[in-house]
């Protein structure tokens, strides 16, 4: 290979490496919807919720299955003087099997309870996605605000530097039209501008670090310089929310996924009450046993033996056990109902707060668009 070919490949390699380095250093700007999608896709909580739901569904299937039967093998009634199997008529080799049957409808109720607990997880994931989207959007907007503020200040920085140069030139000229105070004031404004830039960079980096918790390395990518065009649906006006009674306001939020998830938990605990009541019923067991007997010493045949029986417990001392378990299940249900009530109150307060804030922001937007910006133009 001659020198010209070597030179060509070296130049080509350097060009390719520069292109790759440029692509890595300046990736595509990060848009808001991309940040939200990255955060949702990378959220381990959503994955864990999916696994928990699958585990509860598997437990529901297992809970509806009868317990495994028990088998017994026994050599019984052997004479201790000879241990001959045919010496005594009572001596036998037996095999038995027993099966327990849970109390009442315990199997079906346990399965239903597991299924109800599993059904809350799609609702919890829906609520989680919304919360992640709100959190990431807020952080993205904080980074965007700092980034654009820095960009605008950097654009005007040259004007402040020119102002300082002009003040110095006027002060040092023979005409002396600029006073020393003017120079100091111009330098002070430039210093304040530098301080403002430092503070904005601090805010930008802090918001990027918080955003990196959700999306990782893309948090440091420059953001798209344009805000997304999104419109907020407003089915309710501020006066409507302000003057509505508590029942009406609750009707607006009762389909919130967090409240619906609590409804599933309440249903599960109410099923737990029915499950606790099953303990007032006996638990039954069925036993069957076959016993083999050898011929007698004279060679005569002995009949084998077969036994069958049932066993059950007697839940008669219920005061300190069954009654308390039912009471505990009822109290758990009432506790979750209280939790739902508190969540409903908080959501109604958040609805009112967000509505008032939105109304004030609309007023400010109209003020800027109709008065402030035209006056500054």
Written account of the structure:
This protein is elongated. The chain has a domain at 67-101 and 236-377. It has helices at 3-25, 32-41, 44-63, 106-172, 180-215, 238-243, 246-253, 257-277, 322-376, and strands at 70-76, 92-101, 284-292, 305-312. It has 377 residues and is α+β, with helices and mostly antiparallel strands.
As a whole number of angstroms, the C-alpha radius of gyration is 40 Å
**What is the approximate shape?**
elongated
Low-confidence stretches: 1-26
Q: Class by helix and strand content?
A: alpha+beta
Helix share bin: 55-70%
**Into which percentage range does the β-strand content fall?**
5-15%
Characterize the largest beta sheet: strand count, sense, and whether it forms a barrel: 4 strands, antiparallel
SSE pattern, N- to C-terminal: HHHEEHHHHHEEH
Number of strands: 4
Q: How far apart lie the N and C ends?
A: 67 Å
Number of helices: 9
Q: Averaged pLDDT, please?
A: 84
For the biggest β-sheet, the strand order reads: 1-2-3-4
Task: Draw up the topology in text.
Layout (H helix, E strand, L loop, with lengths): L2 H23 L6 H10 L2 H20 L6 E7 L15 E10 L4 H67 L7 H36 L22 H6 L2 H8 L3 H21 L6 E9 L12 E8 L9 H55 L1
Antiparallel strand pairs: 1-2, 2-3, 3-4
Helix pairs in contact: 2-4, 3-4, 4-5, 4-8, 8-9
What does this entry show, briefly?
With 377 residues, this protein is an alpha+beta fold.
């Amino acid at each position: 290979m001659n020198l010209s070919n070597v030179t060509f490949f070296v130049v080509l390699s350097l060009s390719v490496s520069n292109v790759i380095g440029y692509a890595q250093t300046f990736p595509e700007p990060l848009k808001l919807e991309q940040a939200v999608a990255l955060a949702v896709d990378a959220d381990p909580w959503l994955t864990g919720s999916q696994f928990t739901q699958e585990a509860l569904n598997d437990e529901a299937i297992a809970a509806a299955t009868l317990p495994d039967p028990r088998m017994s093998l026994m050599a019984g009634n052997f004479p201790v003087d000879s241990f001959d199997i045919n010496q005594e008529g009572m001596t036998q080799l037996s095999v038995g099997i027993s099966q327990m049957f849970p109390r009442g409808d315990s199997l079906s109720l346990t399965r239903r309870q597991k299924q109800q607990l599993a059904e809350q997880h799609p609702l919890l994931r829906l609520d989680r996605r919304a919360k992640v989207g709100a959190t990431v959007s807020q952080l993205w907007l904080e980074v965007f605000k700092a980034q654009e503020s820095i960009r605008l200040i950097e654009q005007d920085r040259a004007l402040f530097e020119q102002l300082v140069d002009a003040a110095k030139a006027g002060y040092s000229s023979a005409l002396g039209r600029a006073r020393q105070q003017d120079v100091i004031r111009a330098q002070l404004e430039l210093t304040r501008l530098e301080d403002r830039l430092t503070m904005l960079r601090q805010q930008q980096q802090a918001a990027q670090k918080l955003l990196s918790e959700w999306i990782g390395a893309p948090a440091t990518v420059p953001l798209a310089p344009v805000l997304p065009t999104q419109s907020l649906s407003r089915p309710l006006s501020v006066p409507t929310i302000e003057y509505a009674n508590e029942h009406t306001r609750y009707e607006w939020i009762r389909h919130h996924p967090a409240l619906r998830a609590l409804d599933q938990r309440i249903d599960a605990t109410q099923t737990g009450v029915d499950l606790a009541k099953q303990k007032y019923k006996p638990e039954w067991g069925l036993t069957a046993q076959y016993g083999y007997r050898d011929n007698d010493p004279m060679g005569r045949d002995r009949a084998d033996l077969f036994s069958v029986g049932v066993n059950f417990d007697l839940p008669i001392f219920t005061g300190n056990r069954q009654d308390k378990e039912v009471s505990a299940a009822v109290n758990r249900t009432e506790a979750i109902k209280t939790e739902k009530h508190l969540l409903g109150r908080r959501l109604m307060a958040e609805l009112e707060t967000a509505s008032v804030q939105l109304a004030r922001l609309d007023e400010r937007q109209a003020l800027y668009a109709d008065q402030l910006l035209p006056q500054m133009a």
